[in-house]
Amino acid sequence: MRFRLSRGMTYKAACANIPAGGGKAVIIANPENKTDDLLRAYGRFVESLNGRFITGQDVNITPDDVRTISQETRYVVGVSEKSGGPAPITSLGVFLGIKAAVESRWQSKRLDGMKVAVQGLGNVGKNLCRHLHEHDVKLFVSDVDPAKAEEAKRLFGATIVEPSEIYSLDVDIFSPCALGGILNSHTIPFLQASIIAGAANNQLENEQLHSQMLAKKGILYSPDYVINAGGLINVYNEMIGYDEEKAFKQVHNIYDTLLAIFDIANQQGVTTNDAAKRLAEDRIQNGKRNKTKAIAA
Ligand SMILES: NC(=O)C1=CN([C@@H]2O[C@H](COP(=O)(O)OP(=O)(O)OC[C@H]3O[C@@H](n4cnc5c(N)ncnc54)[C@H](O)[C@@H]3O)[C@@H](O)[C@H]2O)C=CC1
Ligand SMILES: O=C(O)CCC(=O)C(=O)O
């Protein structure tokens, strides 16, 4: 669906209390053909938008690429020398989100001994595995790049599974940290996990249909744009003058926001996806009302 990533970023900002709209650029190309010239051309295009859109790091755009883009535009965040890049703090937010889901589901603050399946071991997935390993979680991992899976096995004692097997594992938590659209009518019937809590944007192929399918199976879904807001929080702080302590403090709010969303879903009998959407839209409407009042005053 057109603009779904951008809308997700808008909801992400609203749920994280960040006073910004949402936008995302997708470059349709083969990452193997990526060159500095192409990245610089993209940077010039972003610059031509005069700050109406600010770009950053994401899938197949590395911190080095961000540095190259920054040679052509001021409107880029996630620059290593400033905020250190968004992925580590995104993974911290996802880790805190997993804790919130465990608390909501099992009234427990402990993760040790739990079985977690992590799909995708890139910038976020690998860092998430580190947090989980430090809390004695038993990890099951998959990546289409076998070298990344081997690294997780070596560093975190993870069990490697084939990418197609990750959905059907008998685990407590499934953490999608690769690409979007992976929660769909083909994969959901296989899921055995009680909780879904991961970083990937747009995890639900069809938001209404697939959030309801998860709810019917009794699976607690942590809305992606709430749990993965750590990177956005970090880059927003980079925009306004980076203060690491402040950014980390704000990321810890993801825990309470998710608990509040799980409560709204329970009390109102709606899916967690709808509860998050209501929270985001209420905040956006309030923001608009306050802006109108400020202009009128
Ligand atoms: N980097 C960040 O701070 C944030 C990332 N996200 C989202 O989190 C997800 C992961 O982001 P990054 O780690 O930065 O990306 P990345 O590009 O570093 O890692 C993605 C990993 O997924 C693997 N992968 C791709 N298809 C797969 C499949 N079918 N099965 C298993 N592994 C597969 C890739 O080989 C790669 O290792 C993306 O959806 C991204 O949009 C969301 C918020 C912030
Ligand atoms: O927007 C960024 O640069 C970092 C966060 C991010 O990529 C996302 O939330 O999808």
Automatic annotation (TrEMBL):
Sorted alphabetically, which Pfam families does this protein's record hold?
Answer: ELFV_dehydrog, ELFV_dehydrog_N
Query: NAD as a keyword?
Result: yes
Protein name as catalogued: Leucine dehydrogenase
Q: Which UniProt keywords apply?
A: NAD, Oxidoreductase
Origin species, per record, is Nostoc cf. commune SO-36
User: What family does the Swiss-Prot or TrEMBL record give for this protein?
Assistant: Belongs to the Glu/Leu/Phe/Val dehydrogenases family.
Segments forming domain Glutamate/phenylalanine/leucine/valine/L-tryptophan dehydrogenase C-terminal: 84-291
Q: Which domain of life is it from?
A: Bacteria
